[in-house]
């Protein structure tokens, strides 16, 4: 991502002892140009580095991050449908490559921060990540601990919504804000919450499951799967809303009808919104209203200084921030809204990775 110190402008393939990992989807952006990766000596010259993993539904991103929050080295590998132990083993492979670059030896004190797309059961290291097969109650902390038993590696795991917020708190638009909210809108909707400088996790680590907020009076059966807010305001929810409209529409009324109905995505809706397509206009407009109402509830409940919007849809939905803010102003407690600023993520797709690095640094401090 541009504008972050320590990250080069290119994504250059790197060869390693694993063979040609361009085929295995390993790339680096680091300190060095000229078609080579940074040497261990160059990494050591940056001082103490921390290991960060951002595990998503389709890929594992990893980085070495220095104490100033700069990415020294980054890489990614794709899950390609892996689940269970196989997905965890891929994450461990990424960590091993990062350890080799950091010239870490047995017994070296190291800390690893991990962002996962789901829930971390408090105190257990077990995770629930519905987009990864076999991770309904997976012992990720125990697995990584055993995989690196020869190292003094401390593992800290948080939900991606919390890591998004931690990244912004460290290096982005929540710096200096002990009360902030990060609304991550992608396939689903999750919220990271910081109150009085402390992360809100809830008794079971599930706090922030904002997709389940009830934002209309009447219950619909579709809410049972993902919640009301997510049903209308997530990328998947928007696609499903559009498909349902298209099924009941006469031919020739929407440019979306040129796409097989089950293949319509939120990206198609944003693309056709500017052309005045009636389905795109209706679904995106509805999402804007739900985003504003959902944010208004968070403002009234938590009284944050900043509400930060990020995730895959922001992105293309970033241009609607003014409309979202206006909608929220109609619903939020007026005094609370008057002290809140709505902003976009400064870190974009790097927010969770940087947040995982912050987690490794703060929790792993001696």
What features would you highlight for this structure?
366 residues; alpha/beta; Nucleotidyltransferase, domain 5; 2 domains; five-stranded mixed sheet; 12 helices; 35% helix
The gist of it:
This protein has 12 helices and 16 strands. By secondary structure, the protein is of the alpha/beta class.
Q: How is this structure best described in words?
A:
The chain is an alpha/beta fold. The chain contains 12 helices and 16 strands. Strand 2 and strand 3 form a beta hairpin. The chain folds into 2 domains: 164 residues, Nucleotidyltransferase, domain 5 (2-Layer Sandwich); 173 residues, Nucleotidyltransferase, domain 5 (2-Layer Sandwich), CATH 3.30.420. Helix 4 crosses helix 12, helix 7 packs antiparallel against helix 9 and helix 8 packs across helix 9. The strands form 5 sheets. A 5-stranded mixed beta sheet has the order 7-6-5-8-11. A 5-stranded mixed beta sheet has the order 14-13-12-15-16, sandwiched between helices. The chain is globular, with a radius of gyration of 21 Å. It is 35% helix and 20% strand.
């Amino acid at each position: 991502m541009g504008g972050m110190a320590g990250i080069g402008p290119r994504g250059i393939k790197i060869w390693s002892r694993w063979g040609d990992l361009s085929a295995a989807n390993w790339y680096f952006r680091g300190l060095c140009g000229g078609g080579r990766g940074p040497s261990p000596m160059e990494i050591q010259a940056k001082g103490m580095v921390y290991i960060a993993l951002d595990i998503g539904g389709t890929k594992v991103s990893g980085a070495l991050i220095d104490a100033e929050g700069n990415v020294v080295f980054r890489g990614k590998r794709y899950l390609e449908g892996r689940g269970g132990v196989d997905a965890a083993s891929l994450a461990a492979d990424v960590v091993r490559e990062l350890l080799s670059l950091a010239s870490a030896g047995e017994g070296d004190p190291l800390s690893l921060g991990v962002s996962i797309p789901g829930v971390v059961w408090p105190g257990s290291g077990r995770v629930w990540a519905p987009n990864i097969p076999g991770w309904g109650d997976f012992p990720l902390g125990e697995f990584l601990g055993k995989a690196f038993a020869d190292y003094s590696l401390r593992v800290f795991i948080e939900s991606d919504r919390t890591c998004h917020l931690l990244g912004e708190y460290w290096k982005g638009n929540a710096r200096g804000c002990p009360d902030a909210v990060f609304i991550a809108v992608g396939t689903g909707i999750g919220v990271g919450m910081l109150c009085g400088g402390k992360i809100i996790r809830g008794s079971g680590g599930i706090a922030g499951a904002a997709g389940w907020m009830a934002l209309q009076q009447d219950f619909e059966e579709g809410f049972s799967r993902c919640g009301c807010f997510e049903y209308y305001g997530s990328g998947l929810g928007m696609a499903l809303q559009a498909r349902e409209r298209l099924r009941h529409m006469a031919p020739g009324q929407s440019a979306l009808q040129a796409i097989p109905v089950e293949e319509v995505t939120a990206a198609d809706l944003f693309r056709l919104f500017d052309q005045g397509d009636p389905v795109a206009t209706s679904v995106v407009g509805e999402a804007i209203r739900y985003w504003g109402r959902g944010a208004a509830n968070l403002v009234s409940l938590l009284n944050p200084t900043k509400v930060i919007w990020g995730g895959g849809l922001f992105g293309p939905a970033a241009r609607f921030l003014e409309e979202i803010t206006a909608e929220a102003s109609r619903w939020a407690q007026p005094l609370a809204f008057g002290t809140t600023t709505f902003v976009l993520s400064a870190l974009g797709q790097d927010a969770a990775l940087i947040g995982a690095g912050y987690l490794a640094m703060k929790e792993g401090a001696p």
